[in-house]
Design a protein that fits this description.
Length: about 230
């Protein structure tokens, strides 16, 4: 999986096949999955291995990454980051907190989103954009929107502690399908309604991969979509 360009160069990224990850975990990490089944242990280990490598790529020593009570990774001081995995593939992205307020990453197996989930994941504007698509294309689009919203969720949660609903975020994918803007449709802690979260997108035969970041917590609303959301 080519992850180049998923973030700017000041974000360190590491990715690996789950089956290839056999590095030992730190004791606090092992404790977090003490009673888990083998597939969960494998994906957790792969995510942590990618995170350790990403920390090293950022110029830091790989340290234990515990899990919070909300399951979010506990990064070392001065670092923000995110982890994602499927059964087969894991990825982690980390950055210095002096440059980023948050980063999020998500990987999903390619394919259509279950039809029963489309209305849960996609709001009215997103569903309106699917009306010109075939039912299959619309469900593929919904899978991509799902991944983007998971990335945005993971980017904002460590900052806000807010359990956003899928329809609290509205996604607009760029024409070339390599980037997106996601606008918050409600306040989330210090992030005001109308706040835009930017990110990038990779869609391959096997995976949908998305990234999201917030550079400056205090940046005001910007852009046409943010103004529309604020005015609504
Ligand atoms: C957290 C969540 C987004 C993870 O997504 P997922 O597709 O199930 O799984 P992924 O492999 O992509 O990500 C899992 C990783 O996310 C990270 N994660 C879990 N909870 C998190 C949180 N609250 N904040 C940030 N990161 C979190 C963890 O590193 C986890 O892997 P690990 O347990 O092995 O460390 C999802 O499980 C969840 O809890 N969603 C509820 C909130 C939501 O989705 N709201 C709507 C979106 S706006």
């Amino acid at each position: 999986m080519d992850t180049a360009g998923l973030f700017d160069a000041d974000v360190a990224v590491a990715a690996a096949l789950v089956d290839m990850c056999d590095q030992p975990l730190f004791p606090v990490e092992r404790a977090a999955i003490a009673n888990a089944c083998p597939s969960r242990i494998a994906e957790f280990r792969a995510g942590r291995q990618c995170a350790h490598l990403a920390l090293e790529r950022l110029g830091l020593t790989a340290t234990a990454i515990a899990a919070s009570s909300a399951r979010a990774p506990c990064w070392p001081a001065g670092v923000v980051g995110s982890i994602s995995h499927t059964d087969e593939f894991a990825i982690s992205a980390v950055a210095r907190s002096q440059s980023y307020a948050g980063v999020g990453v998500d990987v999903e197996a390619a394919g259509e989103l279950d039809a029963s989930l489309v209305d849960l994941i996609c709001g009215p504007v997103e569903r309106a954009g699917m009306r010109m698509m075939s039912p299959g294309q619309a469900r593929l689009q919904a899978k991509t929107i799902f991944s983007i919203k998971e990335s945005v969720f993971k980017c904002q949660f460590p900052l806000t502690g807010v359990w956003l609903e899928f329809t609290d975020i509205e996604v607009a994918i760029a024409f070339d399908r390599t980037s997106f803007e996601a606008v918050l449709l409600r306040d989330a802690g210090p992030l005001r309604r109308g706040r835009i979260v930017c990110g990038r997108l990779r869609e391959t035969e096997d995976y949908v991969l998305s990234s999201a970041w917030l550079r400056d917590l205090n940046m005001p609303c910007c852009g046409r979509r943010a103004q529309q959301a604020s005015a609504a």
